[in-house]
């Protein structure tokens, strides 16, 4: 029996993502994972056919078009792409409370 082909998935969404195809689901690690690379959670050993079917079904979604979810057969390639995409912003990042552009300011003590 041939070994099942798998991929390593990178996901930059803050809480990861549960992807579903045909009643089957896989939870992808996100930026809140304990081990992240370039802001991406890395999920190993995801069935390649399953992941490719999910990508095809969601190819028009921003998270796919903007490269926030991607995969490679070789984990080294996934990690390299995650490092390359470190600066990609999902617009879901936590705000920086001291940044005046956010319209947020520290409360003044009386």
UniProtKB/TrEMBL annotation:
Annotated stretches, region: Disordered: 79-110
Taxonomic superkingdom: Bacteria
Q: What is this protein called?
A: Phage associated protein
Q: Which organism's genome codes for this protein? A: Neisseria polysaccharea
């Amino acid at each position: 029996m041939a070994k099942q082909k798998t991929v390593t998935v990178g996901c930059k969404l803050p809480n990861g993502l549960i992807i579903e195809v045909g009643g089957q689901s896989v939870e992808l690690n996100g930026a809140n994972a304990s081990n992240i690379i370039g802001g991406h959670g890395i999920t190993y050993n995801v069935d390649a056919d399953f992941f490719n079917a999910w990508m095809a079904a969601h190819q028009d979604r921003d998270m796919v078009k903007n490269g926030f979810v991607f995969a490679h057969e070789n984990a080294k390639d996934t990690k390299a792409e995650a490092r390359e995409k470190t600066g990609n912003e999902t617009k879901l990042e936590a705000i920086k409370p001291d940044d005046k552009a956010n319209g947020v300011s520290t409360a003044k003590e009386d």
